[in-house]
Model the fold of this input.
Amino acid sequence: MSKAIEFKTGWLVCQAQVLSSLNIAETAVSRRRGLIGQTEIDTPLLIDSCKWIHTFGVKQPLDVAYLDAKMRVIKISKINPMRIAMPVLKAKHVLEASAGTFENWGLAVGHTLEARRT
Done:
């Protein structure tokens, strides 16, 4: 039986406002696993040390934000299942959430995020 991947947890903050609880993929194993196999995505996932993602094994469309070293949003896209995204060379982190989440938050390119680890 395989062991479940455990993510670090925290809060996602933008402009002094808490947007959501947050899962954080810091290890190689958790970054590789990501959201693969999850049927519902209730908690966004921040992937450290990441420039691109794929959605093979992901069950639903994702909102994806690419963040630079200062956690500033440099690109936002929606990615459907079974796709490979092009790398964003200046990205240092990727934030994944259920499609529609970023619109609900009002998240836009240029916003700076903070991951407050718990």
